[in-house]
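Reopening: structure tokens for the calcium ion complex, inputs below.
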Amino acid sequence: MTANGGELKLLLRGTNIKAMDFLSKSDPYVTLTQGGKLLHKTRHINNTKSPKWPVFTIPLQMLNPDAEVVITCYDYDGKNSKADLIGRCSFIPNVMASGAVGKELILKSNSGKNHGSIIFDDIQLKKLIEKILKDFFQLRT
Ligand SMILES: [Ca+2]
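Re-run output (same inputs, fresh job):
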């Protein structure tokens, strides 16, 4: 029996992302963290209010699916500049994965302003085979 590693699969996009640059839109990317630990960082998408990031997966060895994951959105300003914070939102993978495709989370700035939204175009939580079997046998006993 192979250990089929569980994972969280996400397809995210942004909408109405606030423009942070002086003469253009933002160049947004997001990081996902849990308890301050970096789980994933997307690439940035140039000059847009509606970024679509490539699909990605996070192994469940890195992640507790019952605890909060924070999504932080930044405006990329080049290799030698510090990225500007656009806003933050958060979700609990186990809760979001049960029927929340299409759900929209508001990005809040540090001062609590609405700086756009993150939309979940796909979210799938694939658990370890062993975990599924364990849950199954617990239900039967
Ligand atoms: Ca920028």
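Residues 7-140 form a domain with the Immunoglobulin-like fold (CATH 2.60.40.150). The mean pLDDT is 90. Marking as resolved unless the reporter disagrees.
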